[in-house]
Structure formats: structure tokens, C-alpha cells
Amino acid sequence: MTFDRRIKIAPSILSADFANFGAEIRAIEAEGADWVHVDVMDGHFVPNLTFGPPAVKAFRPHVKTFMDVHLMIAPVDPYIDAYAEAGADMITAHIEAGPHIHRTLQAIKATGKMAGVSLNPGTPAESIEHLLDLVDMVLVMSVNPGFGGQRFIPSAVEKVRKVRQMIGDREIMIQVDGGVDPVTVGSLVAAGADCFVAGSAVFKGGSVSNPAVYGQNIRAIRAAAAAAR
Ligand code: DX5
Ligand code: ZN
Questions:
Q1: With 80 as the cut, is the pLDDT of residue 2 above it?
Q2: Ligand 1 atom at minimal distance to the Cα of residue 150
């Protein structure tokens, strides 16, 4: 994927029907998703448990856009190659997941995948100062990670503005994740974010047998984002 700052909507399959991932992935892509956001959770770094490399490998053939793998795991390094081989296009690690985030990002880049670094709500923007020449994306969490459907944390807006200022003219996207919907997305766009993860705001009210609702939800977020550009 070449760098661009077009608005991207990345539905999180954490909010999808866990008995129909293939159909759900095909449905959100048919209804306008730019990326597919895959939330990997280990029950240690976050209090929830989701997808190992075999699950991500099973998702891969259904993803025709871009598989954005968000690793909420610690330690990260032992699993980077497995998620890369499973077919991730972007691998994002949390700066809080261990003492050597610079080495972790080097390891992600060495797989040939795009590399993202994620900041939890309590982590200052300044912590990425020495990582900006390594990453393709900064993920600013707007909830404490672990679950979908949580309340948006407003301090994420100012953090996005600070990160965008630190990035300067480097080719780095800013992604926001957690509680993003048509109400919250505008302030994030105005602050400098480009890519928006949305789980509950995309999947709510729809189903694999009624995917048109996914399209309506995606278009509502995209319209609110475009209005703020
Ligand atoms: C939370 C995950 C998010 C979450 C988003 O730990 O990283 O991607 O699934 O879900 P919503 O959009 O419902 O907050
Ligand atoms: Zn996520």
C-alpha cells in the first residue's frame, strides 16, 4: 500500500458475528470498508482473549482490502513472524507491551509488513519521539483496550493533534481506535487523524443477512469525517 492520507474506515471484527467471520469480512468490504481491523488480545496485556495466528490465517483469504492487525499482547516479539506469515498487512504493537518497542518495530519492518505503534490513553504523545523514523502509522487509543462498545475518551483528540505536529511532513498515518462514530470522528479528523477503527458503530443493527446496515453505518462515519476535512 502506498502512503496516502485519504480518510480510511477500518471496521473491527471484534464486533462481528464470531460464528461467521468469513461472511462478515466479505460483507463489510462489499459495504465500503477500506481496511479490516483485527483485534488480537492475549488475556494478559488486556483482559480479553481473541485471535491467534491460525485464526488470522483463516481470515486472510476473505480480506481483499487491507488486513490491519492490532496486537494487544505482551510480549510481542515472539509472535511477530507468526502474524506476518498469517497474512497481516499492517502489524501494530503497543508501546506499553514491553521495554524494547524500538526493537519490536524493527522486527515488524524486517518482515516486510507495515509497522504501527499504539498508545494507550494514559501514555503521552511524546513517548513516540524516537520511533517516528520506524513507523508507518501511529494508533491513538480512544478507549482502554480490551473491548468494543466502550465510551470515547475525549483526551484522544488533543493527543492526535500533538502526534500530528510531531510527525510533521513524514509519511505517517494516524489511526484512532475506540468509541469512534459519526459524533466523535469529526474532531479527530480536524486534529489530524486519517484512519478510523469502528466496531460497534459499524456492526450495530446489521448482520450477515442484513449487511446494508453496515454500509449505512460506514457511510455515516465517512460523511462526518469528510465534513470535518
Ligand atoms: C479495543 C479494540 C478496538 C475496538 C473498537 O481494545 O482495539 O478496535 O474493537 O470497538 P468500538 O469501535 O466499538 O469501540
Ligand atoms: Zn483495535
A1: no
A2: 14
